[in-house]
Design a protein that fits this description.
15% of the residues lie in helices and 26% in strands. It is α/β, with parallel strands linked by helices. It folds into two domains: 2-35, no CATH class; 67-201, Protocatechuate 3,4-Dioxygenase, subunit A, CATH 2.60.130.10. The strands form two sheets. Strands 1, 4, 8, 9 and 10 form a five-stranded mixed β-sheet that branches. It has a five-stranded mixed β-sheet with strand order 3-2-5-6-7, with no helix packed on it. The longest helix is centred in the N-terminal third of the chain and has 15 residues, at 21-35. The protein is globular. The chain starts with a helix and ends with a strand.
Length: 204
């Protein structure tokens, strides 16, 4: 971000003779606003439940499902860290089923001092109504618009090996940016997958 500011400052310096200090500041702020695009929203879905516990480990040893680590940062459109952001995260189990009575594969986290979050879970299964694997998010923070969105997986067979070409398939995914690359981590004992899903909130 510092390099970006320096570069923009250099580019704007040549216009200083024809622009006032206030105009320069307004121009810089507009560029900064454009440089931090808010995360695209997506549908809430019918399976949200209030009251999920704060639990960073949803995966239970011995349960079926491929281990998955989901992590990211929470920023806003001004490029600021959003400390104290609350993230409701929920998903289906390996068979594509949601826990509608309890809180399996559901959590409500608070982003830490560095505005980071992480969850140890499994790759969600497919189900007929929404055949693309996905994880639901509801993020709220004081002074920011509440965001409802979803994370998808570029390795999902639903996208037929080409998420760029097939992300609009059946109207399931609202924006290509929500489909995240998947990294395979060959950890001792058992491999796991990993995605990074950063969140950018709009300010009020």
């Amino acid at each position: 971000m510092l390099e970006s500011c320096i570069l923009r400052g250099t580019l704007l310096a040549g216009a200083a003779t024809s622009m006032s200090q206030r105009q320069l500041l307004a121009s810089w702020e507009q560029e900064e606003e454009r440089s931090h695009k808010p995360t695209s929203p997506d549908v809430l879905g019918p399976f949200f439940r209030k009251g999920a516990p704060n639990n960073g480990t949803l995966r239970i040893a011995g349960e079926p499902g491929f281990p998955l680590r989901v992590s990211g940062n929470v920023w806003n459109t001004k490029g600021q860290k959003v400390e104290g952001a609350r993230l409701d995260i929920w998903q289906a189990d390996h068979a594509g089923l949601y826990d509608l009575k309890g809180y399996r594969y559901r959590t409500r986290l608070e982003a830490g001092p560095a505005s980071k979050y992480a969850v140890e879970t499994i790759l969600p299964g497919h189900y007929d109504d929404r055949p693309a694997q996905h994880i639901h998010y509801l993020i709220s923070a004081p002074g920011h618009k509440t965001l409802i969105t979803q994370a998808y997986f570029a390795t999902d067979p639903f996208f037929e090996g080409d998420a760029d070409k097939n992300f609009k398939k059946r109207g399931i995914v609202s924006n290509r940016e929500l489909i995240r690359p998947v990294t395979l981590i060959e950890a001792p004992g058992q491999p796991r997958a990993s995605i990074q899903f950063d969140i950018c909130l709009e300010t009020l």
